[in-house]
Amino acid sequence: MSTPAPAAGGLTIMQKRTLWAWGFLSVPILFYVVIRFYPTGNAMVLSFQEWNLLGERTWAGLENYRVLLWDPVFWQVFRNTFMYLLLGTPISLVLAFFVAYHLDQVRFMHGTIRALYFVPFMTSAVAMAWVWRWFYQDVPIGLFNNALASIGIPQIDFLDSTTNALPSILAPAIWAGLGFQIIIFMAGLRAIPRSFYEAAKIDGVSTWTVLWEITLPLLRPTIVFVVVLSSIGFLRIFDHVFNMTSANPGGPLNTTKPLVLMIYQTAFDSYDMGYAAAQTVILFLILLVVSLIQLRLLRDR
Amino acid sequence: MLRRTRNTLAVLATSAAALTAAGGASAQEQVTIEYWQYFFEARVDAMEQLIENFEAANPNINVEMTHFPYADYRTRTAVAVPSGEGPDVVQLFYGWLNDYIDAGLIQPLPTDPFSPEMVEAEFFPMVQAMERDGQYYALPTAVRSLALFYNERLLEEAGVEVPTTLDELVAAAEATTERDGAGNITQVGFTSGMTAQDHHWFREVLVRQFGGEPYTDGYRNVNYDTEAGRAALDFYLGLEEQGVTQSGFMDEPQAAFRSGRAAFHIDGSFRIGALEGERGLRWGVTELPANNDGERSNYSSYWVNAITSSAEGPEYEASVAFMEYITSPEAMEIWLETVGELPARSAVGMTEENANDPVFGPFIRGLEYAHTTIFADESAQRQVLVDMVERVQLQDMDPGESLTMAAEAEQALLDDFHGE
């Protein structure tokens, strides 16, 4: 009496629905399995093998990971990668918020100014990297050094220095991503109900208190999003570094080399595919851990 | 797939022109072979011309050329050959040969017509690196070597002659270096940069000219951590200390030379084409400077052609005939004219006309005393020398200490490659 009558095929309506759902889901599932999960799994298997692209794959056990642990270049690269993250994320976050907060209050030519900030994000990273590379050159061609020389200040080694090179490469990378973060922050700011601000105004609260007590707490989901996304971006930095140091990739003396560039070189210059896969697995684990920590620290309580 | 279809459609040739030197059989099947190389416009143009000539002489053989961007070239060959879909004749960088032999991707050339005696007698000596166990696996059409480019206008302005020794080079470079009021170099006498061709110059030229031998045991042992190596390094670092060069000047050595802001520049014969198109640049080229005892050395590299393991039966025969043509004197002349790369046969290169050519001559004469480094991993081995110089220049490390570190690092790469 209570059970619905079975349909023609002997299935209940719920079962049919489930079947349809799975039917539609099977396409993206298949896509993800073939395009994402299979190569990922394959890379993990490869990290325990030796392969130079040409011959057979041979098992190497934990050899690739053992070599990685004792490779001084890897630890240098590891430090560099975290330098990009630890400098890049907070600086870009503060800058983006600063610009977005004030842009939000600007009425005059608001759209134009916003577009101007967004333009670098749309520009090709390769073109941008080459232009900045030219900015950083020594006299007689570099823009910055020519300017310094013309006012009698000694030139600065930007890219050809073990201490200045990493920040010099990071600067355009931050600048390039700023436009996107500003847009996200502005959307977050607009989503805060105006009534909160009006109430604060009536109570006569200071601007700083409004910022700390209303704006930032309510912006939390936006901040989480921007932090996670920009962290992943800085951990995966590649095109800026590769193009700004293409004659000596990741140089000088590996001081600008990020993990992705090391993986690229191991795989496609040295054809050491197994070792490259081991590095990739490490990068995957780092990205996973960093993202999980951030989500946990910044989640809504 | 196309090739297979065509093969199954093989027809009996009826034309009398089908009588070729190689075959001689009365009725010949139509065979299609595939040739692969990486994309570089002049090389593709030259090969198209060679294929046309070859097909005219061998009407029963059809050659199809496929080219890929340099960046995926090696990956594509590695994947295609084992699956049987790849080329019959393939172009490889000489440094890759061992890997390809070990992986069974290429097969030895038949000793008739490619006998080791013939190759050793007729080709420039560095080609001998292509031999293994008494058989040649690959042969080049053309080779490359280094020479010293100079800017004629800057030399005239400074009133200096074209240098023939290292000391003369340093003096001439000093006379042509210019600085602004603050002491910044605005024009270098000599371009430098281990990231460009200098690592070859250091290994195969300077180390030898200072009395050493960069490697021993068939390039398995690094041998420049010696007094000669130290002297070569001191000379190289001295160029910057004496202010006649600045590594990284205008980003790339060849860019500085092309824009007319460098008097001297060491580069390969492949740079000729780019410089010829440069408006307003009057340049000449001369052999690499000798040391003070008159001893010269040079570095040579090349791309080779090899028959892959997927060529069998009639395709193998056709591939051998094609290899014979593209390593023939005629093909080398065409290659020289079209690409600007030097003939691999000494008899072709060393003709009166070629050896005295104002542009090709210095490179061709350099081939006679050139050495070819057998690399395990060229970019990693280059990096070792880049780092060696940077440790001294950026971190003030003692040159001797840096040299020792470089030799150890490179030895580790070689040991790893040779499985020791």
Query: Describe the biggest sheet of chain B?
Result: 12 strands, mixed
Q: Bin the strand percentage of chain B.
A: 15-25%
Tell me, what's the shape of chain A?
Answer: flat
Given the C-alpha coordinates, what overall shape of chain B results?
globular
Oligomerization state: heterodimer
Overall radius of gyration of chain B = 23 Å
The tally of structural domains of chain B comes to 2
Helix coverage percent of residues of chain A? Answer: over 70%
- The overall pLDDT average of chain A reads 90
Which features does this protein show?
heterodimer; A: 301 residues; mainly alpha; two-stranded antiparallel ribbon; 13 helices; 2 strands; B: 420 residues; alpha+beta; D-Maltodextrin-Binding Protein, domain 2; 2 domains; 18 helices; 16 strands; 45% helix; globular; disordered N terminus
Question: If you had to describe this structure to a student in words, what would you say it looks like?
Answer:
The complex is a heterodimer of chains A (301) and B (420). By secondary structure, chain A is mainly alpha-helical. In chain A, 71% of the residues lie in helices and 1% in strands. Chain A has 13 helices and two strands. In chain A, strands 1-2 form a two-stranded antiparallel sheet. In chain A, a hairpin with a 7-residue loop joins strand 1 (49-50) and strand 2. Chain B has two domains: 6-144 and 301-363, Periplasmic binding protein-like II (D-Maltodextrin-Binding Protein, domain 2); 145-299 and 372-418, 3-Layer(aba) Sandwich (D-Maltodextrin-Binding Protein, domain 2). Chain B has 18 helices and 16 strands. In chain B, the strands form three sheets. In chain B, strands 1, 2, 3, 4, 7, 8, 9, 12, 13, 14, 15 and 16 form a twelve-stranded mixed β-sheet that branches. In chain B, helix 8 (194-209) packs across helix 9 (227-241) and helix 17 packs antiparallel against helix 18. Residues 1-27 of chain B have low confidence and may be disordered. Classes of the chains: A mainly alpha (301), B alpha+beta (420). The A-B interface holds A 52-55, 133-134, 137-141, 145, 149, 152, 154-155, 159-162, 247-248, 251-254, 265, 268-271 and B 71, 74-75, 78-79, 99-100, 102-105, 180, 182, 184-187, 193, 195-196, 246-252, 261, 377, 379-380, 383, 386-387, 390-391, 394-395. Chain B: It comes from Gymnodinialimonas ceratoperidinii. Chain B: Keywords: Signal, Transport. Chain B: This is Extracellular solute-binding protein.
